[in-house]
Amino acid sequence: MAGPSAVAGRDEVPEGGFIRIRVAGIDCILARVEGRLYAVEDNCSHEDYPLSYGYLDGARIKCSLHGSRFCLRTGQPLEAPAETPIRTFHVEVINDQILIDPTRAGE
């Protein structure tokens, strides 16, 4: 069973920005907002489209295709047309390495 994987150094994710990563075969977005790290799947639940083509709006990510916004903490859609949440993943920092556990939901 897969567990936490080191995906980036602590300083690789800019404040107010994100990077694309892949963990356990899943394309993800790793974002930092107000010092907190979030990991969500890089796929809009409305249309099979990468959220990484969009942008952060506070602690939300906006899909550039149809404008849906998703909460980075919960994955819940906050704006139509998306109705289904996106997956979130547990993030922790150990020894300046960011680890993501694809088997645990974010908090």
UniProtKB/TrEMBL annotation:
Entry coiled-coil feature ranges: none
Keyword Secreted: no
A UniProt-annotated Pfam family: Rieske
GO MF annotation list: 2 iron, 2 sulfur cluster binding; metal ion binding
Alphabetical list of InterPro entries matching this protein: Rieske_2Fe-2S (IPR017941), Rieske_2Fe-2S_sf (IPR036922)
Superkingdom of source: Bacteria
Keywords, alphabetical: 2Fe-2S, Iron, Iron-sulfur, Metal-binding
Keyword Iron in record: yes
The Rieske domain, residue ranges: 5-100
Protein name listed in UniProt: (2Fe-2S)-binding protein
UniProt source species: Marichromatium purpuratum 984
